[in-house]
Amino acid sequence: MHRRLSTWSYVPLCGYALIVLFPLVWLTYTSLKSTPEIFLGPWALPRAPHWENFVHAWQGSSGEPGLGPYFLNSVVITGVSVVLILMVGAAATYSLTHYRFRGSELILNLFTSGMAFPIFLAAVPLFLLLNQTRIPGLAPKGFTNHPVGLVAVYVAYSLPFTVFVLSGFFRALPRELGEAARVDGAGHFAVFHRVMMPLARPGLIVAGVFNVIGIWNEYPLALVLLSDRERFTLPLGLAQITQRQQYSVDFGSLFAALLIVLLPAFAVYLAFQRQLRQGLTAGALKG
Amino acid sequence: MTRRRDWNAVGFAALLLTPGLLLYGLLVLWPMEQAFWVALHRWRGLSGRMTFVGLENFVAMAGDEKLRVALGHNLQFFLLSLCLVLPAAIWFANTLSGEIRGGEFFRALYLFPNVVSIVAVSTLWMFIYNPNWGLLNASLKAVGLGGAVTTWLADPRTVLPAVCVSYAWYALGFYILLFRGGIQGISTEILEAAAVDGATGSQVFARVVLPLLADFVRLSVIYLFINALNVFSLVWIMAPPSGTAGATEVSLTFLFQKGFIEQQFGYATAIGGVTFLLVLGLTSGVNRLWKVG
């Protein structure tokens, strides 16, 4: 489409760019200020960089907890969840799209219709279920405040989107390819694992990127299921620090904490823009 | 080909399907189904007994002034976010679909807020709204609007719009993406034909592009409505209703308060059920009206 744009169109465009980017710039230089400097107003640059803000944000200071342990919890929870989501999701989707049996369409629809279910409707029963399921040895006090419980919930609630995205990719793979491999003597598992999974790689990447961001950022389910501070994920930890530090004085390290949370999101965004767009568009147009 | 059933295939397909189906059934479908059952009970406290009370929770909700006010805030949030997001999203999507200088830069930029954790969005905007050293008041003073300076999140009159603006900052990129998809779907021949017929850029936009985007507008209205009914995290972190004299109470903060703080599980679940029914009702209502109109 060829249209000449008037100069005036650049005013809103640049305004929007400023609104998106300037807060990040502001955060960056303010995270190096001392708290008295912050109180002087937002425009001035730091006189000397206060790198200790980042140390305090990570380790905590004067009895307040730092983000470090929450960051590590989030890395583990997100990593394990996404690997499991891709394995469980790919297996289920492949089964439903390549071995058509009575009810396979129905089950596929049952999975993808979960995208429309509101989480909050299930919140109370889910909490009660996890709280009251006790397994001696593994979870004597139930699966709330339990990493296994949280990962299982994340995997389950990510399946609708994952199955939806992967079913598009798996359906596009020719069944003849699998049949040819079978004739050559490959077993069912070998066809799935060696032939189909590598071909579905682009889909796995889209689903993976999308789930990494979703779970890394997830707040409400974690809020409902975790109350023990040692188990907190990064969003819970940041929310807690934000709410507590309103009453304390160390704003410099609070800015640093926010930057620590934002930078991984920015990096993932820059690296995987295309996959993100694909995932978002696919999810959006399903509705 | 023989029509013999391949039991290896059946077994393998079942094996692949089982973990996903078990997790999904147990942790998603079962609690959803259970919700309708719990909502019909009076149930206070984890150790408390569950007493079947039929529709008592729903009757109580009908007379619950606080819930009515909360749903009113959801409605305000919806209307405000609609005004903030929809026109801007369509305008940016249309502008960015043209060949413009610096287009790559703007196209790379707009989706970023969407990958930021909602908790980080909340914290960031609490900083921006800080009455003493925040960006907003300082910017207002810098451009000579010092009279508009206020304590954004502490003032019951400004707090809900303030939260809504931060939501718009977070969400706009997603809707730009949605409309860009819609605009790319419009065939260039239609647009060229309009240009050949002498239509100006704004005429093409108003008479050709916009009508062809109707489905995407409908989708956006539905999404914004669902999101307005589901707004929770932003409010809970930036301006919890306990600190704003209820000015930011929305249906889900009310549900959270009832369910996870007061442990009135039956009542909380009933609120969730009604919120869900509102979503279903509006979605089908909009879909029907749109087809008639």
Could you give the count of β-strands of chain B? 2
Number of helices in the DSSP assignment of chain A: 14
Mean pLDDT of chain B: 90
> From the 3D coordinates, which CATH architecture of the domain at 74-235 in chain A would you assign?
Orthogonal Bundle
Order of helices and strands of chain A: HHHHHHHHHHHHHH
Helix/strand-derived class of chain B? mainly alpha
> What is the mean pLDDT of chain A?
89
Instruction: State the helicity of chain A in percent bands.
Output: over 70%
- Could you state the order of secondary-structure elements of chain B as H and E? HEEHHHHHHHHHHHH
Largest sheet strand order of chain B: 1-2
Distance between the termini of chain B: 54 Å
Helix content of chain B: over 70%
- Total strands of chain A: the figure is 0
Radius of gyration of chain B: 24 Å
Q: CATH top level of the domain at 74-235 in chain A?
A: Mainly Alpha
Low-confidence stretches of chain B: none
Note the total helix count of chain B. 13
Note the quaternary state here.
Answer: heterodimer
Structural class determined from secondary elements of chain A? mainly alpha
Q: Which percent band covers the strand fraction of chain B?
A: under 5%
Shape of chain B: globular
Describe the overall structure:
The complex is a heterodimer of chains A (287) and B (293). With 287 residues, chain A is mostly helical. Chain A has a domain at 74-235: MetI-like fold. Chain A has 14 helices and no strands. In chain A, helix 5 packs across helix 7 (147-171). Chain A is globular, with a radius of gyration of 23 Å. The model of chain A has no long low-confidence stretch (mean pLDDT 89). The mean pLDDT of chain B is 90. Chain B has 13 helices and 2 strands. Chain B has helices at 7-38, 56-62, 65-97, 103-109, 118-129, 135-142, 159-184, 188-196, 201-212, 214-229, 233-238, 251-261, 265-292; strands spanning 41-42, 51-52. Chain B is mainly α. In chain B, strand 1 (41-42) and strand 2 (51-52) form a beta hairpin. At the A-B interface, helix 1, helix 4, helix 5, helix 6 and helix 7 of A face helix 1, helix 3, helix 4, helix 5 and helix 6 of B.
